[in-house]
UniProtKB/TrEMBL annotation:
Keywords per UniProt: Glycosidase, Hydrolase
Residue intervals of the Beta-xylosidase C-terminal Concanavalin A-like domain: 332-541
PANTHER family, alphabetized: BETA-XYLOSIDASE (PTHR42812), BETA-XYLOSIDASE-RELATED (PTHR42812:SF12)
Pfam families, per the entry: GH43_C2 (PF17851), Glyco_hydro_43 (PF04616)
Listed name of the protein: Glycoside hydrolase family 43 protein
Keyword Hydrolase on entry: yes
Catalytic residue list: D13, E195
Family membership noted in the UniProt record: Belongs to the glycosyl hydrolase 43 family.
SUPFAM superfamilies: Arabinanase/levansucrase/invertase (SSF75005), Concanavalin A-like lectins/glucanases (SSF49899)
Residues the record marks as site: Important for catalytic activity, responsible for pKa modulation of the active site Glu and correct orientation of both the proton donor and substrate: D136
InterPro entries: ConA-like_dom_sf, GH43_C2, Glyco_hydro_43, Glyco_hydro_beta-prop_sf, Glycosyl_Hydrlase_43
Biological process according to GO: carbohydrate metabolic process
Length: 555
C-alpha cells in the first residue's frame, strides 16, 4: 500500500521517471542548496533521498535570490543513454502574479537550463541556457528522436494574462540551443494560472498535462490531447483529472502539478504535489509535499483516477512490485564522517566552505558567523526539513560570544521573514545569555524577543524544540566540563510559540511563499570577526501528537 505523501515535508513539483526497474522523482528546492532533490524507489512505496545534482557554482549560484526564488519545477527524463534535467533558476518573482499589476511588479526573471548525466548520481554537466520566457520547463523526447522544450509563458504587459499559456519549441542537441519558431500550443482554461506542462505520446495522441488554478487551495491537474504536437488540443471531458478544489474533506489539499509514469506491465501512476494543513490553523507548515496514486485509461482514451472522482488519495494501491525498503534515516547525526548528512541543506551559496566546516573540529559541524537571518547572501544556516506536524529536535553547541552582535543556536525557519530562533549571545548587562527572536509576518508586532535567560559563563549548551501542530516550545540545559555527562535538567522557556507562522499561508500581503518549514543550526557575527559555533550533533524525530511535550524524553 502506498501511504501519501510519499515524500513528506517540502518536496514540491514532482517529476517522475522510470529507468528499468528504478523510479526517480525530482522536486524543487527553491533557495536551498544544493539544487534539486532526487528520490529513488524500486517499488513505488519505499523512497530514499538519493542525490542533489546542482552542486557547484558553474551550475547554480543563488546569492541574492529573494525568498521562494531559486530552483523551480525540475523536469527529469531519460533518453539516448542520458538523464536530462531541466530546471528554472528564478532571480526575481515580485509582489503579485495576477493581472492588473503595475509598474515593474509584473516583471520576472525566469532562466531555464538543461544539465545531463550518464548516471543519476552524476557527474552532471554544466548547464545549457535555454530561455527566460517563463517557468516550469519540461523536455519532451518524441518518437522520431526530436526534442521539444515546453514552458509556461509569462506576459508582463499591463492588464494581460500573466500565465499566457504553454509554449513549445524544438531543442537541437547538436547545436545545444532552441531552434525554430516558438508556438503557443495551449492557452489554458477558465481556471487560469496555467503552468507545469508535461507531454506524453500514447496511441497516436499527444497528451498534455498542466496544472491550473494556482498552487494553493484551487490547484488542479488539467489534461488535453491532440493528434499533432503543435495542436490544436481538445480538453478532457472532465477538464480537471485530479484536484481537492472545493473539497474541504480531502486529507490532501492543494493537489496539482503532476507527472505520469508507467510500470513495466503498463499500469500508470500519477505523482503530484499536495499539502496537509494543520487541523487548528489550516496552514501548511510542511509546505508542498509529493503524493502518488494509480490512474486508469478509459475506453475513450482519457485518464482518470481509479474511482473516477478526481480526488487525491491518502492511501493507494501499490503496483505489487517486490518490496524494496531502505535503511531508516538516523535520528541523531553526529557529524563524524566529514560529510554533511544528505538530509541537511544550506541557503543560496555555492561556496559552503565560507559558511561551515566538518573538518575544522572533527566530529563537529562548525558554523562560521556570517550575515543575519534576513540575509539573501551569505548566511551560516544548516537545516533539515520538518517532515511531520509533530517532532522533537535537539542539538548541543559550543559557543562563546563576546557581544550582542554574535549569535548562534537552534532555529525553526521558513524564510527570512518567518522564523523562531533560540540563540545564545552576550552583552554587557546580562553576560552570556539565551533568548528567542521571532519574525511574525502576519502578526501586529512582526519582530519579538523574549526576556534574556542567564547562562553559565562557559561550557556547552543543549538546545531543544518540541513542535506539536501549531504549538512550539523551546528548552535548554547547560553542561559542565565533562559535556553531556554533566548536563543538568531541562529548563523550559515559559512562552508557547506559534508554529503556524512557519507555513505557506502565513505571510505579508503579496509575498510569494512556496517552500516549507526547516529546523537546524545557525550562527551570525555582524561584527565581522566571524566567530564560529561548534555543534556536536543534531537529532530530529517525527512523532505523534503530545499534549505535554515537555514531559517527553529527549533523544
Amino acid at each position: 500500500m502506498i501511504q501519501n505523501p510519499i515524500l513528506p515535508g517540502f518536496n514540491p513539483d514532482p517529476s517522475i521517471v522510470r529507468v528499468g526497474d528504478d523510479y526517480y522523482i525530482a522536486t524543487s528546492t527553491f533557495e536551498w542548496y544544493p539544487g534539486v532533490q532526487i528520490h529513488h524507489s524500486r517499488d513505488l512505496v519505499n523512497w530514499r533521498l538519493l542525490t542533489r545534482p546542482l552542486t557547484r557554482a558553474s551550475q547554480l549560484d543563488m546569492l541574492g535570490a529573494p525568498d521562494s526564488c531559486g530552483v523551480w519545477a525540475p523536469c527529469l527524463t531519460h533518453a539516448d543513454g542520458l538523464f536530462w534535467l531541466i530546471f528554472t533558476d528564478v532571480k526575481r518573482y515580485g509582489r503579485t502574479s495576477t493581472g492588473g499589476a503595475t509598474g515593474s511588479a509584473s516583471l520576472r526573471d525566469f532562466h531555464n537550463y538543461l544539465v545531463t548525466s550518464p548516471a543519476i548520481d552524476g557527474p552532471w554537466s554544466d548547464p545549457v541556457y535555454l530561455n527566460s520566457s517563463g517557468f516550469d520547463p519540461s523536455l519532451f523526447h518524441d518518437d522520431d528522436g526530436r526534442k521539444y522544450l515546453l514552458n509556461q509563458l509569462w506576459d508582463h504587459r499591463p492588464g494581460g494574462n500573466r500565465f499566457n499559456g504553454i509554449v513549445a519549441q524544438e531543442y537541437s542537441v547538436a547545436e545545444r540551443r532552441l531552434v525554430g519558431r516558438r508556438e503557443n500550443i495551449f492557452p489554458g482554461t477558465a481556471h487560469g494560472l496555467t503552468e507545469a506542462p508535461h507531454l506524453y505520446r500514447r496511441n497516436g495522441y499527444y497528451y498534455l498535462l498542466t496544472a491550473e488554478g494556482g498552487t494553493g487551495w484551487h490547484h488542479g491537474v488539467t489534461m488535453a490531447r491532440s493528434r499533432s504536437l503543435h495542436g490544436p488540443y481538445e480538453l478532457h471531458p472532465d477538464m480537471t483529472i485530479l484536484t481537492s478544489r472545493n473539497r474541504p474533506d480531502a486529507a490532501l489539499q492543494r493537489a496539482g502539478h503532476a507527472d505520469l509514469v508507467d510500470t513495466p506491465d503498463g499500469r500508470t501512476y500519477i505523482a503530484y504535489l499536495c499539502g496537509r494543513p494543520l487541523r487548528n490553523r489550516g496552514t501548511c507548515t510542511l509546505g508542498r509535499e509529493t503524493a502518488l496514486q494509480p490512474v486508469v485509461w478509459g475506453e475513450d482514451g482519457w485518464l482518470r483516477t481509479v474511482d473516477g472522482d478526481a480526488m487525491p488519495a491518502l492511501t493507494a494501491a501499490a503496483p505489487g512490485l517486490p518490496q524494496h525498503p531502505f535503511p531508516a534515516t538516523p535520528v541523531r547525526e553526529n557529524f563524524d564522517d566529514g560529510q554533511l548528512p544528505i538530509d541537511f541543506q544550506w541557503l543560496r551559496s555555492p561556496w559552503p566552505d565560507e559558511l561551515f566546516s566538518l573538518a575544522a573540529r572533527p566530529g563537529h559541524l562548525r558554523l562560521h558567523g556570517r550575515e543575519s537571518l534576513g540575509s539573501t547572501f551569505r548566511q551560516a544556516l544548516v537545516a533539515r526539513r520538518q517532515q511531520s506536524h509533530c517532532y522533537s529536535a535537539s542539538t548541543v553547541v559550543d559557543f562563546m560570544p563576546e557581544h550582542y552582535q554574535q549569535q548562534a543556536g537552534l532555529v525553526c525557519y521558513y524564510n527570512a521573514s518567518k522564523f523562531h530562533y533560540l540563540y545564545i549571545t552576550q552583552d554587557e548587562t546580562h553576560g552570556r545569555h539565551l533568548r528567542v527572536m521571532s519574525s511574525l509576518p502576519n502578526h501586529v508586532q512582526t519582530d519579538t524577543f523574549t526576556a534574556p535567560v542567564p547562562l553559565p559563563p562557559d561550557g556547552q549548551v543543549h538546545l531543544r524544540v518540541e513542535v506539536d501542530d501549531e504549538r512550539l516550545h523551546f528548552g535548554w540545559r547547560a553542561t559542565g566540563n565533562n559535556g553531556d555527562a554533566d548536563a543538568g535538567a531541562w529548563q523550559w522557556l515559559p512562552q508557547q510559540f506559534d508554529a503556524s507562522i512557519l507555513s505557506d499561508e502565513a505571510n505579508a500581503p503579496g509575498q510569494p511563499n512556496f517552500t516549507g518549514a526547516f529546523v537546524g543550526m545557525a550562527c551570525q557575527d555582524m561584527s565581522g570577526a566571524r566567530l564560529h559555533a561548534d555543534f556536536d550533533w543534531f537529532a530530529y524525530r517525527g512523532r505523534p501528537y503530545c499534549a505535554d511535550p515537555k514531559a517527553l524524553p529527549c533523544d
